[in-house]
Write a structure and sequence with these properties.
Radius of gyration: 27 Å
Mean pLDDT: 87
Low-confidence stretches: 3-29
Oligomer: single chain
Number of strands: 10
Distance between the termini: 61 Å
Length: 263
Amino acid sequence: MKKSNVVFLLVTLCVFTLLFPSSGFSNEKKEDFKIPSHVLTISKENTFPNATEDQEVVEPSDLTKELIDSLKVKVENPELIKMLNESTINPSPIALGYRGMVFIGRWPLNYESLETTINWEYQPINKNELNNVGGETAQNMNYVQQEQKEVKGALTNKIANPDDIKKMMLLKSKEKTKLPLAYHTVIGKNTKKDNSYSVPTEKHATLDSYAPAVNEKGQVTFGEVYIQLKGSKKALVVKNVTKQWIGAWIPIQDHVSFSYNVR
């Protein structure tokens, strides 16, 4: 290939990259939340009926939407939106020259999810064993939960308004993973699964079971929230905005990860 042609191709590639930066040249890692084959659901078999941890989705009223849409910072905290929905703000149309600023607190305004990963062996919950040393034929072993196990999630560091933040993190994690997440889940005693593992003669086998969990990491935006009144006009004002890193472990409800070993 001639030198002039090589130069032309390089220039063309650089121009194309500048014009279309996301066209196949991105190294961004796509998150994969596919459940692997060694992880099984026990939603039907679980002897402890876990309650689904559905988070209330609070829709802003027309007034609340008007107030938060005028801000440069996003307001997604369901508790703050709920409080604004329940507030009555009716400045008098004849209140010429009236000015007021009502402080309603320092709030976590939104949570931005930056990294979501899954530890399929978050917490050991059970061990089944079968000793076939001296046996004449292969035997089968199944999963049977020996004791009731409680699995809890939590925030990984201290932060103000932890309950509000846990709710926002749970909502974002569920939206990203499409998995049944909850900060608390229980695997009941004598829960069984039909998955069968063959244990050869002269072998000892163990079936270890784990509760999986999502590791959620991101940033919380905080701000001081005020309602500003100017005559007949009203507005929402946010001051002293700060950000804080936060992480959380959120168990995957009614799922068990299995690890089979023979020696």
